TrEMBL record:
Record-annotated Glycosyl-hydrolase family 116 catalytic region domain positions: 507-785
Annotated Gene3D superfamilies: 1.50.10.10
SUPFAM superfamilies linked: Six-hairpin glycosidases
One of the GO biological process terms: carbohydrate metabolic process
Name of the protein: Glycosyl-hydrolase family 116 catalytic region domain-containing protein
GO molecular function ontology, one term from the record: hydrolase activity, hydrolyzing O-glycosyl compounds
Domain called Glycosyl-hydrolase family 116 N-terminal: residue spans: 78-398
Entries under InterPro entries matching the protein: 6-hairpin_glycosidase_sf, 6hp_glycosidase-like_sf, GH116_catalytic, GH116_N, Non-lysos_glucosylceramidase, TAT_signal
Organism whose genome encodes this protein: Pedobacter ginsengisoli
Annotated transmembrane regions: none
Length: 906
């Protein structure tokens, strides 16, 4: 998590971790006096006290998530609506853009988080200082109205029977505003009794799964629609405005002047914003660049300088201007107006966009990552913001329609709206200042915005979303970084922060081996695996070599994601390495490397047997101490740790055979539910102090590590500052458990845990689009997509042409989206009398299949199958193994855009 543990020591000590008042308490436990004289009692109730009727609602399709002005739910809403790796631009609940973290400011220790600040928090024992990297935005979320860095907005004018009505699209102007978030698109509706038209706004940046280029434009699209709900024609005008944001931070007195000028681009109206600097320092500053405000229609009237607010009639219909300047630091705001007469019942639409181009990376970032020195990938495609706007104009219909098609496809499902939202939303991390793509194409990230450098392997290996939505980014990261910049040729070690570290992390190494297999599966052919196999094999061998005594249970002290070097045999690390070895076996088999496949297979067999015999205490999996060191240093030992069966959880993500027995894995998950999950963390964090505030009293979640049997010194004799982590609810880990619960059939528990996270991020309390761990938009939270994968029972292997669907519930009437290596679409299955019908409807790209697997629906026997690609009958063979129905074709079935593959079992 953290690169600099020394920053944390004081934080944990000051938290009163070893509070004397707690240490002195004695209680009876199991008829004995308490042994935990130096550690607070476990106080998570076994009975979770959750209303059964509420639980039933979690399965329902429900309604789209909607936030209302009238319910005071707009204060914190900030949905990222810029392109991937282009900084952070938020849309607020009322449709106005805010934050504008596009100026390359974020850097560790200086500008961390969405709002770099320290806040006070009473942890139940004392008031503590919480920094951005420790969760200050969870305690005090950034408020939209405090972070409106640039002037931007819209106003609508309607003239009816000689009477003029004007309203800005901002919260105070309307009786009601309704905000519907369906990332990547926000839809906002405005209404007032005193306004004669209905107004709608759609805000998003092009977001097209499998197309990382067109999803990474430094631009936001704003689509205004005005609908005439009256019985007579109405003259309507829309005025949009945008401040010149060039050198916003460094444009001081006598540094230069801002300039707005009209651009001549066919079929559009644009205002290009720049800064004429008087010195090279200002010219080369991080915020030096250009912006462009565009109406994607020809009829727009351009105003290169608008008067101050509020908007009045004089702002509409004035004389157009073609160029304006303003001496810094004076603001310069340009506007574009469009007017039309709207007939009764008809709509008037105006498509605007804002683009930006700031290609000077943070000076500190250039020092730690040489790839940053040449700037960003988008600048290799576009010379300035005007070029971005021109590209949008030329491709507007394709970019917008495909984005809208994805949004419709994702939400056209039988899965609950809230579930679809929470499992997908964290991919918005890619559209924040947490991620970068440098000029040479390299993808790079912090862990959370501006905190902990180097696309850390032991954090990012939890994130399941990117590989399924933009697989090219993950493949490139594996090839260029994990097997390139961060790879040690002599040993096979993968440095867990590439050039920002010098050591491997054992969980990062194992997780990255599993990611090699996933990236291979999310490819259309074998190129990725064949190209990288020699190094992948070395990386697997390095991991296997960390098992010093040959029992299949890694026992080499090495860094892990909890920022410590633990000794002994640790269930979660052991199991993760077993799963990675099984992935190594699968890759070796595909590469016809029988000897190495056998090496991996032996490791898996020994490891599984010994882990289940030696590390399972009859209830859950533990950490067996090192024979020499004992429990001297920090570890989880006999406590109940959130990741204890993480290896099996990972195996489900890539369709591997079981690496742990089902009964023991479920026992471990039941123990986590019993001992670590609570509907109210308040009593726990009040006594178990020292953690960071990622769940507060009154909120539920799963605690990282608990001591259910009240052992003395449960985490070792000489515990270190990292112990504070054990008392937290970190959503990335919770999502990982929720995914595993779903895969093992513990659907109710999975939905409850996911919903509790979802409710922690309700707009009434904080930003729904920003799951926080070590800083904002934390990468590990993208583990949430794994829960969606397992809800669908989805497996996929592109090179083999294999796909499987096995819904976790509602199997008689199920519909959900899916992505593959080269295409995406919708999958449905239904029970129809004695038949079961399965349809793969491809919406985008292409899909090559040769083997398909489904589960039998209901009790009736399946005797035959027919497969139709449109009107073409496809000959297949059917095999039934228990409840699984598997069909194979002698040759690849090529499904193209807008084609459907229909499978009928009778």
């Amino acid at each position: 998590m953290h690169k600099k543990p020394s920053n944390r020591r004081d934080f944990i000590k000051k938290a009163g971790l070893f509070t004397a008042s707690l240490a002195a308490v004695q209680f009876p436990v199991w008829g004995k006096s308490i042994f935990a004289l130096d550690y607070p009692l476990h106080n998570i109730p076994e009975n979770k006290g959750i209303d059964p009727q509420w639980i039933k609602t979690l399965y329902n399709r429900g309604e789209e998530t909607t936030y209302f002005k009238s319910k005071n739910e707009f204060k914190y809403i900030g949905m990222p609506v810029g392109g991937l790796h282009a900084g952070t631009v938020y849309v607020g609940g009322d449709g106005r853009l805010w934050l504008w973290q596009i100026y390359n400011e974020t850097f560790e220790g200086a500008q961390e988080g969405i709002e770099p600040k320290t806040v006070n928090w009473n942890d139940g024992v004392e008031v503590r200082k919480i920094r951005a990297r420790d969760g200050s935005a969870y305690i005090e979320p950034a408020i939209a109205n405090n972070k409106r860095v640039l002037e931007q907005g819209f106003a609508v004018k309607a003239v009816v029977n000689g009477k003029t009505f004007i309203k800005e699209l901002s919260e105070e102007h309307w009786d009601e505003i309704v905000f519907k978030p369906a990332y990547p698109m926000a839809t906002i509706k405005y209404s007032s009794k005193d306004f004669p038209v209905a107004v709608y706004l759609e805000v998003y940046s092009p977001f097209i799964p499998l197309d990382a280029q067109n999803s990474a434009l430094p631009a936001t699209i704003l689509r205004v629609e005005v609908k005439n709900t009256s019985n007579s024609s109405i003259n309507v005008s829309v005025l949009g405005w945008m401040e010149n944001g060039a050198n916003k931070l460094t444009g001081k007195v006598k540094t230069g002047k801002r300039k707005n000028e009209v651009l001549a681009v066919e079929n559009s109206s644009s205002i290009f914003s720049s800064f004429e600097a008087v010195s090279d320092d200002v010219k080369n500053a991080q915020d030096s660049g250009t912006m462009c405000f565009t109406l994607h229609k020809t009829k727009g009237k351009t105003y290169t300088a608008l008067d101050p607010w509020p908007v009045k009639s004089k702002h509409f219909g004035a004389a157009a201007t073609s160029s304006s300047t303003a001496d810094a630091p004076e603001k310069l705001v340009g506007g574009i107006e469009i007017a039309e007469t709207v007939s009764p019942g008809k709509s008037f639409k105006a498509d605007y966009s804002i683009s930006w181009h700031f290609n000077n990376a943070n000076v500190n970032l250039k020092k730690i990552v040489k790839d940053a020195q040449e700037g960003f990938h988008y600048a290799t495609r576009f010379k300035d913001a005007g070029a971005v706007s021109a590209y949008l104009q030329s491709n507007f219909e394709k970019l917008t329609k495909t984005t809208e098609l994805w949004s419709t496809t994702w939400n056209d499902s039988t899965l609950p709206y809230w579930f679809l939202e929470r499992t997908f939303i964290n991919i918005d991390t890619l559209a924040t200042a947490n991620t970068y793509r440098f000029a040479d194409g390299r993808f790079w990230s912090w862990e959370g915005v501006g905190a902990c450098a180097g696309t850390c392997t032991h954090v990012w290996q939890y994130a399941q979303a990117v590989a399924r939505i933009f697989p090219e980014l993950e493949r490139d990261l594996r090839h260029r970084v994990d097997l390139g910049v961060g790879f040690k040729e002599d040993s096979g070690a993968i440095i867990f922060r590439a050039e920002n570290e010098s050591r491997p992390a054992i969980d990062g190494q194992a997780g990255t081996v599993l990611r090699f297999y996933r990236e291979h599966q999310m490819s259309g052919d074998n190129t990725f695996l064949q190209t990288n196999w020699p190094k992948i094999k070395k990386a697997v061998q390095f991991m296997l070599d960390q098992d010093k005594n040959g029992d299949g249970m890694t026992d080499t002290p090495m860094e892990n994601t909890l920022d410590a070097v633990w000794e002994g045999e640790i269930a979660w690390i052991v199991g993760l390495c077993i799963a990675a070895a099984r992935a190594g076996q699968a890759m070796a088999e595909e590469m016809n490397d029988a000897t190495f496949a056998q090496t991996c297979q032996t490791y898996v067999a020994n490891g599984r047997k010994n882990m289940e015999q030696e590390l399972f205490n009859g209830e859950y999996f533990i950490h067996r101490p090192d024979k020499v060191q004992g429990r001297k240093n920090l570890g989880s030992y006999n406590t109940c740790h959130i990741d204890q069966v993480y290896g099996q959880s990972w195996a489900f993500q890539v369709g591997l055979p079981r690496v742990l027995s089902k009964d023991k894995a479920i026992a471990a998950l039941k123990a986590l539910w019993k001992y670590n999950f609570t509907a109210d963390v308040g009593p726990y964090i009040k006594t178990h102090v020292g953690g960071r505030p990622y769940a507060l009293p009154g909120e539920g979640g799963m605690v990282m590590n608990t001591n259910p049997h009240n052992e003395p010194k449960p985490f070792g004799e000489n515990v270190s500052w990292q112990l504070g982590y054990f008392h937290e609810c970190m959503s990335g880990f919770e999502h990982q458990v929720a995914a595993h619960l779903m895969a093992e059939g513990m659907v109710e528990e999975s939905l409850i845990l996911t919903r509790f996270i979802h409710d922690r991020y309700h707009a009434a309390k904080r930003n729904p689009f920003n799951e926080i761990e070590c800083s904002d938009h934390y990468a590990r939270a993208m583990a949430s997509y794994g829960t969606f994968i397992n809800a669908c029972g989805f497996e996929y292997h592109g090179p083999k042409g294999y796909i499987k669907f096995s819904p976790a519930w509602n199997s008689e009437n199920f519909k959900a989206p899916f992505t593959s290596a080269n295409g995406w679409g919708s999958y449905t299955q239904k029970k129809a009398g004695a038949k079961q019908l399965h349809t793969i409807n491809l919406k985008y790209g292409e899909l090559q299949l040769q083997e398909l697997a489904f589960n039998k629906i209901g009790a009736g026997a399946v005797k035959s199958v027919s497969v139709m690609l449109g009107t073409q009958s496809i000959p297949v063979q059917l095999k039934q193994n228990g409840t699984e129905l598997r069909i194979t074709s002698n040759k690849k079935i090529n499904v193209k855009t807008n084609e459907s593959l229909n499978i009928t079992f009778s």
